[in-house]
Amino acid sequence: MARFGLLTALALVLGLLDRAIPLTALLGGAAPGIKLGLANTVLLYAVYLMDWQSAVFLMFTKVLLSGFLFGSMTAILYSLSGGILSLGVMLAIRKRPAAGALCAAVMAAVAETMLLIQNPHPKGQRLWCVILIGIACIACIAAFIAIGKGKIRGVPGTSIAGAIAHNIGQVLAASAVLRTPQLLTTYLPVLIGVGAAVGTLTGVVAERVFRAMHINPDKPEEKRK
Questions:
Q1: Are 152 and 146 contacting, i.e. CB atoms less than 8 angstroms apart?
Q2: Angle of CA points 205, 210, 214, to nearest 5°
Q3: Angle (nearest 5°) at CA 174 between 155 and 77
Q4: Count of CB atoms within 10 A of residue 221's CB?
């Protein structure tokens, strides 16, 4: 119970920090509404080192408290849609994280292709999006190779897949609520690339935290230590 309370508080603090970082402005307004997703590192901890029931409960608690404290009912709906899909994907692939990194690389490549088909000569904000997705795709491929060769543990691969799934869940919810299916072809490709990029970042951060705590997420028997 004490650990659950600490993780909930940490997720809320990191979520507040997410809102304070003007990531959209730093990217020149290329992807409005994006965040680093620092709170996802807490869910990664839960996915690897707690049972799935606790991870699900932590996700619901974090989404509801964040919505009531910092957002609105609409924000809760979007976050809940993304959180459910994200957590489900991470729980499903935590034992095969390389597959998550590979799928993320393929999705990022497809997303960039869609953007280039819509605008073969991107400029301004669209060019920023294409560059960001390209970098994210390369990062996912690097993560896949590093995990396969045992250079790094699988936490980044799980994080990447979870971040992309979170963005997909949010866009699906927004498309249904706003009745704008165009978001699936215009805004979703951008968020897939952004999810791959920030998922790589939060995955590396989470893995470093595990190392600092002398925790090996690849060995389930160490969860109780």
A1: yes
A2: 145
A3: 70
A4: 7
pTM, to two decimals? 0.84
Backbone φ and ψ of 151, nearest 5°? -70, -35
Cα torsion 44, 50, 52, 53: sign: negative
Name the one residue in this structure whose structure tokens are 């490709």. 189
In this structure, which amino acid lies at residue 133?
Answer: I
Residues 208, 62: Cα–Cα separation, whole Å? 23
- Structure letter (DSSP) for residue 28: T
Single-letter amino acid, residue 72:
S
* Residue 47 one-letter amino acid: V
For the packed helices 188-212 and 155-178, what is the interaxial angle rounded to 10 degrees?
Answer: 150
Kindly state the tokens that stand for 37: 């997703």
Question: How many CA atoms lie within 13 Å of 222's alpha carbon, on the beta-carbon side?
Answer: 10
Q: Residue 218, SS3?
A: coil
> Per residue of the chain (225 residues), what is the pLDDT tens digit?
888 888 888 888 887 887 777 665 555 555 556 667 777 778 888 888 888 888 898 888 888 888 787 777 877 888 888 889 988 999 888 888 888 888 888 988 888 888 888 888 877 777 877 888 888 889 889 888 988 887 877 888 888 888 888 888 888 888 888 888 887 877 788 888 888 888 888 888 888 888 887 777 766 445 444
Give the integer Cα–Cα distance in Å for 36 and 163: 10
